[in-house]
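Dear colleague,

Following up on Tuesday's group meeting, I ran the structure prediction for the two-component complex that the binding team flagged. I've pasted the input sequences exactly as they went in, so you can double-check that nothing got truncated or mislabelled along the way. The structure tokens for the whole assembly follow below. Feel free to forward this to whoever is handling the docking comparison.

Inputs:
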Amino acid sequence: MSFIAPLFFVALAGLAIPVLIHLIQREKKQILRFPSLMFVQRVPYKSIQRRRIHNWLLLMVRLTALALIILAFARPFFERQDLPVAGTGAREVVVLLDQSYSIGYGDRWERARAAAYEAVNSLGASDRGSIVLFSSGAEIALRSTAAGERERLTAAVAEAKPTDGATRYAPALKVAGSILAESPLPRREVVLISDFQRGGWRGEEGARLPAGSTVTPVTIAGNEDAPNVSVTAVSFARSAFSNQERVAVTAVVVNRSMRSLTGGQLALEIGGRPVQTQPLNVEASSSASVTFEPVTIASASMRGTVRAGTDALAADNVFNFVLSPAAPVRVIVVDRGGTGSAALYLTRALAIGDAPRFETTVRQPEAVSDDDLRRASTVVLNDVAVPGALARRLARFVEMGGGLFVALGPRASWPQDVDILPAAVRAPVDKTRGDAARIGALEYGHPVFEPFRAPRSGDFAGARIYGYRAVEPSPMAQILARFDAGAPALLERRTGAGRVLLWTSSLDLAWSDFPLKPVFLPFVHRAVRHLSAYAEPAPWSTVGQVLDASFGAPASQPLGGVVITPSGRQVPVDDEGGEVLELTEQGFYELRTKASEGAAAVVASNVDSAESDLTTMDPREIIAAAVGGPDEGARAAAGVPLPPEAQERSQRLWWYLLVIGILVLGADTLLSNRLSKT
Amino acid sequence: MSLLGAHSPSAIPGARFMDPVVLARIGNLDLVARAVCDGFINGLHKAPYFGASVDFAEHRGYVPGDDIRRMDWRLWARTDRYYIKEYEAETNMNFSVLLDVSKSMDYGSRGITKLDYARILTACLTNLVHHQRDRVGFVAFDSEIVEHVPPSAKHMDTILHVLDRLKAGRPGGRMREPLHKVAEHFGRRGVLVVISDFYEDPEEIVDAITPLRFRGNDLVVFHVLDPAELEFGFSDAQAFEDLESGEQMPVVPDAMRKEYVSLVNAHVGALQQRFSEVRVDYTLLDTSKPLDHALYKYLGGREKKMRLR
């Protein structure tokens, strides 16, 4: 056993301290003040016995703890002679070949492949080689194959081609580490062939190779001055024009090269056909946005592509997206109608807004038809007495996934036998005398109130509530808001696939001035959005993302069919739609089901625009993280034994010694406590 | 019981010593002088004179100048002689507390010092007596007289003020000098209460206190001791310092507890005996015991004895 810091053993002299304490410990000279010593006789002070050690066990425990801690500080380690000695023995070589789309820049892919061939050819007779292809993930093309089967290794390299993924080094190093760890061969090598983009490395991420491994970086770079533009995002401005929805597409184009681009062309394709072309001029290392003329959305899942010509890195010049007509959220407001209609503020609030647009139909309780319920996603009961038949139909509607908003007022009633409300409705509470009720506690974590979470994002306490219905919450209900006196103001209950929200006051001016407050409109919008489970469809995804195989198609449609990838590959989807699909290619993924004629759903997939940034990093940074230091891999390769610090670092005996020492100190405390009690 | 804690806020700082618990306990009792008292107005106590009351004392022959309203006409009818009916006079009394404030009183092993305990005792007794319309006075002494409040019906507040600013600062010497000096001041007969921890030889104590009785005063002695002084419940061997003399001495309590306790008990026994011989009421008070119970017991017992008389 050797030590890094043997000087710490001087501290062993400190072991004498507890012994001395034990030996010379005297009773503290405490003076006790006593009223009178009249009756107290003089008695000789007995302290001779204290000069003996009473508790040998306690002394030993303390000495052991101190010795262990000193030993830990001296940082001991066992010198190991069995480290692999390089220069002798067979090699296990893992070739990590970058196949992210940035390697397609210029002639980089050919150079990378050539480097891989060279690595394969350098294998000796007794060596073994593996080919690992990596982009955002890593895939073992060929695992630990004898050098005699060199053809298989070269064939694996030959079959590889750049993908649409981004670069990530950590997964590749992890895979290489697992291959090396299983290898019985004495020398372990990793050949990392990549363009070493800065964006592919996010710190260590736990990618560590077994001790004694070496990493040989092969940098494929150069030619960065070739023009490289990329389309990084598009945005849409929707408008309505003669009853048709139109969208103006704006694309953001980034020029990452040192050369400015002039006289370029930016094309917009809809459904695969070019419809518009705009001139494109971008300064060096800057970005520009280009807006196309509005196009009409003719069908659902309309495919669009923005194309910025071709350059050294072609993959990022294309940006795909999918546009669908904005689907309105259909709301039925059930109101008693007539001159006393209380739905004015509610319908006015729902008439505003286009993301999403609310399509409101006002019905009297007896006029709500099954067809209405089939089309609607949310029903608002605005202070009405609900007959039993309608209540049962509404219960079915909620079970099937619909949303129900119940606003209670003086007239509201709900049949007892239909149990879907979050609370039983009781008598009105009159707050017209004295202070009006205010909305006190809000459940800001809930989607309805989430936008109001930040300070100055809406003041619900400003509304004065002069009357509300007392309610008795059911055990399944969640109380989302309360009045200042503690009575529930808003309750939610999930029933089947749907939700019910219960607002215990009215949504007109009869019982409160809430509809006049600025928070009323966002509150109504959020509540209806939440009840109708509205989610804005994402117009595009990025390669590497994982989607569920239903592609967000309506749940009512039976699944079962195939997903057609951009390259034409067919992936079957079962009826459950439970599978997930990783997007690996750039382009449009189509879901075709038995029920639908054409594509049931389309997802646009784009390459990661961060990969377009070709800024390189120093490979030594990755090597240092993977093998523990920039020199260690080289040292292991040269057969030089590791320095004592490195050996000690790999063993970390001090850590265990320190923990044991501290535990023994804890035991000492317990022991001395017990002894002092007896 | 928190003796110092439970008090109502009052303008007089010393009022904090009037413990409501004690007052509630003894409020329906009287402290009646056992001996006759010299007083001016009617009260609870026996006066040395005849006066106006309902208790008939004796007949006396009429002499010119006697009030003819007090003539016993029935006796005149029977004997044909003039007799005057005389009644026992009841008067108010002087009540003074003599409190030892030597440094040894400033000791408390359980939160409350003997001095605080004695102050509460003083305040409660004085309050009780004041409410039965007697005159109250107060003397604090160590080796000499520290404070002197002459007895008066208006001195209740003064006594409370004095009690508040009392400090046990100086070592007490022999009690003889201050008490003998005080004895000269008490011209009129009344009740005197001496409160001390009596760290002196019993003979000397009795010698110091007896002169207070000479003028016919009724004398009550309260011996206040801390439980630590009574039981000597120390465990660690340490140096003990005499609060009064400052003398230090190493002590191993375990080794000498038995002897100490027997010495203290002998001292208390001797005091009890000597005081009863000179017709002085002696009561030992343990500061760990609630004062209300001790005082109630003493006053109740005293009232019973008075009725027997």
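Chain B has two domains: 13-35+93-308, 42-91.

Cheers,
M.
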